[in-house]
UniProtKB/TrEMBL annotation:
InterPro entries for the chain: CBR1-like, NAD(P)-bd_dom_sf, SDR_fam
UniProtKB keywords: NADP, Oxidoreductase
E.C. code: 1.1.1.-
Highest taxon of the lineage: Eukaryota
Molecular function as annotated in GO: oxidoreductase activity, acting on the CH-OH group of donors, NAD or NADP as acceptor
Statement: the UniProt record of this protein carries the keyword DNA-binding: no
SUPFAM superfamilies, per database record: NAD(P)-binding Rossmann-fold domains
Listed name of the protein: Short-chain dehydrogenase/reductase
Length: 324
């Protein structure tokens, strides 16, 4: 892409950001607020909610009137974040939040959290899978912590989805699962695609996509990372381990949407993923160009959409569908 093309693309992105900012300023109309028609109050869980995009997602959902559980690995930081949301809420707004310890990389922790959610609320209505790690900054592209990145970003998200699906409350409006992902995880992206054409094609074809295929890809990459041979193969060349973890999240989102698609009315679960953009958070070393509030917006929009069967198993950015 030449200089003019890059400038035009940048202007389109900025124009879309302005449009979304306007949309974000518009209140939901009473007929759009399906969560207000649930009794008792709709319950949302946001993982990794003590800072960054997760904190903003929790804050915005709470301001919209849902009861939000900030699920955080560090219990003290989670409690501090919950208290901050309460303290900063406008005087005319009643918010309901609490924090709960959760480490998505620990199966026992996820199991305990699920048991608590059932005992306390009988289930949940919204799950935002935000918890994630990335050890690369700037031009770095080390895979030293690849196992930890994959375990948290992919297996942690998968673990939460599998544990929470039986807990998603039945309603006429459907339950929502929203996965925080990244354009870096696009199988066919322009800059960071998977070089193995056969693998890329199988990941993008619904009749080929399977849990086994995703896990085999992860296993192959981790083996090559240990052997030091990963760079000789055609893996994404930017933030490689993070990109592959998000590629797996995207693929699993599509797979789960297909598995959940035949649930009867009243038991629907809509699952989608989104890219928040390059957000100014600790994960990016505060080098992003989008605020956490902006970054969380598309996820909140997906969580609060009216029930729509065609908004399922999709990938979004700036409230627009993008390709996998």
């Amino acid at each position: 892409m030449g200089k003019k093309g890059k400038e035009a693309a940048r202007e389109r992105r900025e124009q879309r950001r302005r449009e979304v900012a306007l949309l974000r300023s518009l209140p939901y109309e009473p007929h759009q607020r399906w969560w207000d028609r649930l009794a008792p109050r709709a319950v949302a869980v946001v993982t990794g909610a003590n800072r960054g995009i997760g904190f903003e997602a929790a804050r915005q959902l709470a301001l919209h009137g849902l009861h939000v559980v900030l699920a955080c690995r560090d219990a003290a930081k989670g409690q501090d974040a919950a208290e901050r949301i309460l303290a900063e809420a406008p005087d005319d707004t009643v918010v309901s939040v609490e924090s709960r310890k959760l480490d998505v990389a620990d199966a026992a922790s996820v199991e305990a959290f699920a048991a608590w959610a059932v005992e306390t609320y009988g289930g949940i209505h919204v799950l935002v899978n935000n918890a994630g790690v990335n050890f690369n900054k700037g031009a770095d592209n080390s895979v030293e912590f690849a196992e930890q990145v994959i375990e948290t970003n992919y297996y942690g998200t998968k673990r939460m989805i599998d544990a929470m699906i039986p807990l998603m409350k039945r309603s006429a409006y459907g339950a929502r699962i929203v996965n925080v992902s990244s354009r870096l995880g696009r199988a066919n992206g322009r800059r960071n695609r998977i070089g193995d054409v056969s693998l890329r094609d199988r990941l993008l074809k619904d009749d080929c996509l399977s849990e086994q295929l995703i896990d085999e890809m992860i296993t192959k990459f981790l083996e090559q990372a240990k052997q030091g041979t990963w760079s000789l193969n055609e893996w994404p060349q930017m933030y490689t381990d993070y990109s592959i973890s998000k590629l797996a999240v995207n693929a699993y989102t599509r797979l789960m949407a297909r598995r959940l698609s035949d649930r009867p009315e009243g038991q629907k679960i809509y699952i989608n993923c989104f890219c928040p953009g390059w957000v100014k958070t600790a994960m990016t070393g505060w080098e992003g160009n989008v605020s956490a509030e902006e970054g969380a917006d598309t996820g909140i929009w997906l969580a609060l959409l009216p029930q729509e069967t065609d908004t399922n198993g999709k990938f979004f950015a700036e409230r627009c569908e993008i390709s996998f």
